[in-house]
Amino acid sequence: MKKGNSSSLRKGRISEEGRIYLVTFSTAKRQKVFTDLYLARIVVNSLKFQAKRCDTLAYVVMPDHVHWLVQLNSTGLSTIVHSVKSYSAKAINTYTGSTGALWQNGFHDHALRDEEYLVDLARYVVSNPIRAGLASKVGDYSHWDAVWI
Q1: Cβ(89)–Cβ(34) under 8 Å?
Q2: Tell me, what CATH number does 30's domain have?
Q3: Which residues, listed in sequence order, are joined to residue 55 by a DSSP beta bridge?
Q4: Domain count of the chain?
Q5: Residue 137: partners with Cβ closer than 8 Å, 6 or more residues away
Q6: How confident is the model at residue 3 (pLDDT cuts 50, 70, 90)?
Q7: How far is CA 46 from the centre of its chain?
Q8: pLDDT averaged over the chain?
Q9: Does 34 map to a domain?
């Protein structure tokens, strides 16, 4: 697979209604855009805006990427991720006066096969700031949520 070729990432990708996915997408050139509180909240609001299309189970907005644990309703995964990235990019570019790409092309997704470890996976997602040295406990980091915690 050629690096940066988002069409290669989409080959074989299917979206199943009711399926839970762990989705990761990154900023262009891994720029640490979301160290700015307001810009990070734009992304959080973009995720929350999808509530009619999917159920957000957990998320964390890191300085240069997003992890999102999501259960699909009737809308496809690619459509939902595109919507989040598009809305947030437009809002952030308007706020900052930027015109360039905010997000890398494509995204990584992993369909959960066994929901037995779902809560553990949600804890793993929201604990990313601790592992990255950005917080000493989950509650010290502002840009995360999970339905169980």
Answers
A1: no
A2: 3.30.70.1290
A3: 71
A4: 1
A5: 130
A6: very low
A7: 10
A8: 90
A9: yes
Tokens of 15: 């979206």
Q: Where are the beta strands (DSSP E) in the chain?
A: 20-26, 54-61, 65-72, 108-111, 144-146
Angstrom distances, CA of residue 15 to CA of 3, 71, 81, 129, 141: 23, 10, 12, 29, 31
Rounded CA-CA distance 122/12 in Å is 26
Instruction: Map tokens 């999808």 to a residue.
Output: 50
Q: Summarize pLDDT for 88-123 with one digit per residue, the tens.
A: 999 999 999 999 899 999 999 999 987 778 988 999
Is residue 129 included in any domain, yes or no?
A: yes
pTM of the model: 0.89
Is residue 100 within 8 Å of 89, Cβ to Cβ?
Answer: no
